[in-house]
Amino acid sequence: MFRSAKSFKPAIIMLILFVSAPGGWVVSSSAQEVIDQDTYILVAGRRLPFVYAISLEAALDPVNNNTSNAIISRSKVALDRLDGQLLGDPANLIVSEDGRTLYVINHHGSIDNGEFRQHGGRGQIAVLDVDEIIDPNNNRTANALLRHMDSGGFGAIGAVLLPDMLIISNAENNLTEDGGNRIGFVDRRTGSLRGTVELPLGSASHGFDCPDYPVPYVSPYGPPRNLAILSSGPTFGCFPNPNGLALGRASTGRRYLFTANGGTNDVSVMDLERALEGDRLAEIHRIPNQLGAWGITVTPNARHIVVAHGGSQQEDVSGNTISLINVDRASIGASDAEVARILVGTDDPSVQTHPLIPSVTSDGRELIVPNLLVDNVSIVNIELALAGDPGAEVARIPLSRSNGASVRPKGSAITANGKYAVISAGPGSRPYSQEIGYVYVIDLEKRSVVGTVTGVGNDPYGVAIVYR
Question: N or C, fewer C-beta in 10 Å, the chain?
Fold first, then answer.
């Protein structure tokens, strides 16, 4: 039997860089050693709107393999609708510096996933108490939920944590997948929207004009017009639709925000100091990428940004590479800011693998990359990648389900000691009340799956790791 949260050991003091990409969207951390610490995996259940708390120790026990026994609690990310319907769309997770608060990015807000069939729901941030999340007594309740905050836009997904603010990328517009260009700065204490950066429209690689919407927004113009609701329109590619969000630091000490732009197939570079002064046009450069930039993270020294080239938002095609971007070069708009591009998940450049949400080990040596379409996880040696070595993908770990169904790995996180990688996986499938998601625990030294947890949400995305 699991202990009540009231008896847990004090939280580890953590230095954390938070990035996304339903992203992650991912937590990269270094932590001081604590004797006899307990490790918990938190997973966004997405279509089934719970945050799942999983005991790593129980997940590693062979007796629990391929069962849901390691799940200790499921926490609601919104109050039920008056008719009892579960609400919420948890895609990304971020843990506070002291490990006590979880910020959950509800991609489309407090919606019923079974009824909300389009993109472009209003983004929302649910604030939850971590001790209450990992208390088994709170299973399937909203007891951990403290409050909600507005993201400042639609289709919220990417997130970065500052001491007093959350920075949120809003990837969509009202009721449409296209039309996103807003980065919101939200006060962590009050939920107030403190500022917005508006990314310019268009991309040099597209070759067509993008009229009809001023940036920054100026009255009397309304929201983006003439946009398709359920599919791409003829001008798709004008709006960047920023997905993942990461924070890098140049050798000068100056900080820069990076967004993975799925609409314009590039990466935006924003001067954070200008943004914090209220400059709505803080974007200073764009870096082209393969296509469909989605997942993004940063190395522990904050000098390189990692971008996963997922699925195009303009056509039915996916990427198969990740890129490393040098922050110093990106900050000056150098044409060689992308210093490495690595094929992942396959040896065949024609195979689409759709890498999604990468993570970096705390020592900065390796990348973990879930590949959605080929049901495997790549391990990339960063030093080899930066050296241009074609063997930089040093391991490829296959994932499988007991029923032979597609795995569709998405999210990733790595324990602070670098021993284990945790991967969320599983498609979304109706009815969304089904708990059909998986979590895989990979031993990074053995290069193999050492634990599988079933029944984790429906289309699970973001993963975070906390310690007690």
Answer: N
Prior bond to 223 cis, omega within 30? no
Residue 232 confidence (pLDDT)? 55
Distance, in Å, from the CA atom of 460 to the CA atom of 438, rounded to the nearest integer, reads 8
What residue has token string 């309304």? 222
Grouping H, G, I as helix, E, B as strand and the rest as coil, residue 65 is: coil
Measured between alpha carbons, how far is 92 from 348 in angstroms, rounded to an integer? 31
The torsion of the CA quartet 132, 134, 140, 143, rounded to 10 degrees, works out to 0
In a domain, 321, yes or no: yes
Longest Cα–Cα distance of the chain, Å, equals 64
Asked if 19 contacts 294 with a C-beta cutoff of 8 angstroms, the reply is no
Looking at the domain assignment, is residue 220 inside a domain? no
Q: Is the peptide bond before 431 cis (omega within 30 degrees of 0)?
A: yes
- Best CA proximity match to 20, nearest among 330, 456, 412, 417: 412
Do residues 287 and 338 make contact, with C-beta atoms less than 8 angstroms apart? yes
Beta-bridge partners for 285: 269
181-185, 204-208, 332-336, 433-437: least confidently modelled range: 204-208
- Pairwise CA distance, residues 336 & 326, whole Å: 9
Query: Does 386 map to a domain?
Result: yes
| Confidence grade of residue 151 (pLDDT, cut at 50, 70, 90) | very high
Number of domains into which the chain is organized: 1
**pLDDT for the residue numbered 233:** 62
pLDDT on residue 87: 98
Q: How far apart are CA 373 and CA 356, in angstroms?
A: 10
Read off the pLDDT band of 255 (50, 70, 90). very high
Neighbours of 247 (CB within 10 A): 21
Q: Are 249 and 258 in contact (CB under 8 A)?
A: no
Q: What one-character-per-residue DSSP string does 370-405 give?
A: EETTTTEEEEEEHHHHHTT-TT-EEEEEE---TT--
**Which of 23, 59, 28 minimizes the C-alpha distance to 366?**
28
pLDDT at 174: 87
Mind listing the pLDDT tens digit for each residue in 391-441? 999 999 999 998 889 999 999 999 999 999 999 999 999 999 999 999 999
- The pLDDT confidence band at residue 241, using thresholds 50, 70 and 90, is very high
Q: Are strands 293-298 and 304-309 parallel, antiparallel or unpaired?
A: antiparallel
Domain enclosing residue 299, as ranges: 15-201+231-467
Residue 217 lies in a domain: no
Nearest to 128 by CA among 110, 151, 147: 147
